[in-house]
Amino acid sequence: MLFYGLKENRWVNGALPALLIHCCIGSVYCWSLFKGDIASYMGVEVSSIEICFMLAIFFLGMSAAFGGKFVESNVRLSSYCSTACFVSGLILSAFAVYNKIPYLIYISYGVIMGIGLGIGYISPVKTLMIWFSKYKGLATGIAISGFGLSKVMFSPLIEYCTKHYGVVITLLVMAFISTLCMLTASYLIKKPSGWVEKKEDISLSISKIKNIIFDTRYIIIWLMFFINITCGLVLISFEKNIIQGVGISPIYIGLIASLTAFFNTLGRFGYATLSDYLRPKVWIYCIIFFSSIIVTMNVSIISGLSTLSVLLLLFIINMGYGGGFSTLPTLLTDYFGMKQISTIHGFALSAWAWASVASFLITQILIYRLHCSIEEVCTYLCILYFFAMLGGISLLTLRKYNKDI
Questions:
Q1: Are 334 and 29 in contact (CB under 8 A)?
Q2: Helices 136-164, 167-188: inter-axial angle, 10-degree rounding
Q3: What average pLDDT does the chain have?
Q4: Which alpha helices (DSSP H) does 1-135 contain, by range?
Q5: 11-190+197-396 belongs to which CATH class?
Q6: What is the pLDDT of residue 237?
Q7: Which of 73, 99, 145, 271 has minimal CB crowding within 10 Å?
Q8: CA geometry: angle 52, 27, 298, nearest 5 deg
């Protein structure tokens, strides 16, 4: 076998599988690049299929919330299950688009693929934190940076395929690439030899669950994460529209999408690595929210929709959006310890699910119903970021670090 001589290697059995899985499932963020082509091919309004992205993220968050115990018990099996759901969701989506069946694409792209996203998202996280026990922030940065890196790789491919071969072929090509990469990752991923998962470390009693979800620190972390993801999704789901709105030539859309994805990846890796040197780690969220407030204010009050201000907005928001994801596991570990971290992380990712619903409602109301400009939307997002920063500051005042929950 190709990797036979590299067994028991944290890069081969930890980092590489994490990147392969996340680089595939992260293609969900390319939705804005081909949703118009899907709507056009099916002969429907874009707004009528917008719910697909919301459903995918919702089921991502909910499957992550309830799949933590499964992932803890068998990371390889959970990776194979993620592969099956994600790839079959893409293939069924291609079938639904080709045959112009709207409800089937809701089920395939939204529900089935969404479940694959959630299980695949949390599968490598704890495994990497075990392999890189001294640098947990770096470990989660490696794993989750792939989610942002995916858009860098898939954006040019999607733009090229949809232009020359159509959106159905594009979905099938994505499914083929994902099959190869995710099956390889599922075969390679494993925890270090000698690591034994104690039964009490992969199970949570009802009383422990209540202790966690009603803990003030957990509630604040959940709300901060929820607001960051809601604001990010509002802008990311309309990224292509925003770019076109400032008069940038369509030939540069793929390039700019790759650049925003690069900043997303930079945030995931950079903020997570920085968190290894900060105590408490919640300072990272305060930095994210402060920078987000500045760029949203810049668009809504100062510069308007100038090319530079819009690019700066997309770059900084994407960087903070990615950083919020990658620092979440280490932030939770900082407060609650390593025991059941996959389960606790999964619970926290339920905020991602509800953020998808909130962002969908915001875009439907502000953009489609009230026809607000991007400047006005940024004003609303700026207010949300401000309240999130207040949450981070309040968390900093909590000095209690009880890791025995």
A1: no
A2: 150
A3: 84
A4: 10, 16-25, 31-42, 46-49, 51-66, 68-73, 75-98, 102-105, 113-131
A5: mainly alpha
A6: 75
A7: 99
A8: 85
Q: Return the closest-CA partner of residue 26 out of 5, 56, 48.
A: 56
* Token duo for residue 61: 């968050």
Cα(first)–Cα(last) distance of the chain, in Å?
A: 43
User: Over the stretch 258-292, which tens digit does the pLDDT of each residue have?
Assistant: 888 889 888 888 888 888 787 778 888 999 999 99
Contact 108, 89 (CB under 8 A): yes
Give rounded-to-5 percent helix, strand, coil for the chain.
Answer: 80, 0, 20
Which of 32, 182, 48, 175 lies closest to 105, judged by CA? 48
In angstroms, rounded to a whole number, what is the distance separating the alpha carbons of residues 297 and 385?
A: 11
Given a cut of 50, whether residue 401 has pLDDT beyond it is: no
Tokens of residue 278, six digits: 């900060």
Distance between CA atoms of residues 357 and 323, nearest Å = 21
Q: pLDDT (tens digit, 9 = 90+) per residue, 363-398?
A: 888 877 788 888 888 888 999 999 999 988 888 887
Backbone phi and psi for residue 160, each to the nearest 5 degrees, phi listed first: -70, -45
Residues in Cβ contact with 94 at an 8 Å cutoff, skipping those fewer than 6 apart:
168, 171, 172, 175
Element (H, E) at 284: helix 283-297
What distances in angstroms separate CA 244 from CA 116, 163, 305, 306, 308, one per listed residue? 32, 17, 11, 12, 13
Percentage of residues in the chain with pLDDT exceeding 90?
36
Question: Which of 128-137, 171-180, 394-403 has the lowest average pLDDT?
Answer: 394-403
Q: How do the domains of the chain map onto residue ranges?
A: 11-190+197-396
Regarding predicted confidence, which is higher, 192 or 25? 25
Q: What angle do CA 161, 164, 168 make, to 5 degrees?
A: 55
Largest CA distance in the chain: 61
Reply yes or no on whether the pLDDT at 405 is more than 50: no
